[in-house]
Amino acid sequence: MPGWTLITNHGLVLSYISKHPRSTALELAGAVDLTERSIRKIIDDLESAGFIVRRREGRRNRYRIKPHITMSHPSHGEIAVGDLLEILGWKRRSQSIKARVPNAPQLPGFAELDSQTETETTNEVIGT
Questions:
Q1: Domain residue spans in the chain?
Q2: CATH of 1-92, one of 1.10.3720.10, 3.40.50.300, 1.10.10.10, 1.10.443.10
Q3: Burial of residue 22 (number of CB atoms within 10 Å: 0-12, 13-18, 19+)
Q4: Using only C-alpha atoms, what is the Rg of the chain?
Q5: pLDDT tens digits along 35-65
Q6: pTM for this structure?
Q7: Which of 10, 23, 62, 107 could form a disulfide with 27, with the two C-beta atoms 3.0–4.6 Å apart?
Q8: Angle subtended by helix axes 36-48 and 9-19, to nearest 10
């Protein structure tokens, strides 16, 4: 087995957080095989770069991925981080086509479906 991995530690942590948004730094460290200190530094980096938002819930943090943020390397600047995470197994929350693609043309007969999906997503997030 090679002494390197195809995906960087930052990518591994981001991928794990996308699937386990309530993980502690200690849980992340065990899953990604890094020290807890390294995980905390990577989380700070990801938050500073805008890839995640950290919110306190009691004694834990909850992380939210910002899937529309583009990759940080100039050669892949047009690719959204959410697209990469989907390839790695992340399940994007359902949202309206208009929310994902603001200038998307409205197809005849789909307006009701799109607004229904948006309402269901809003209810899921709010918890109604």
A1: 1-92, 93-128
A2: 1.10.10.10
A3: exposed
A4: 17
A5: 999 999 999 999 999 999 999 999 899 999 9
A6: 0.67
A7: 23
A8: 80
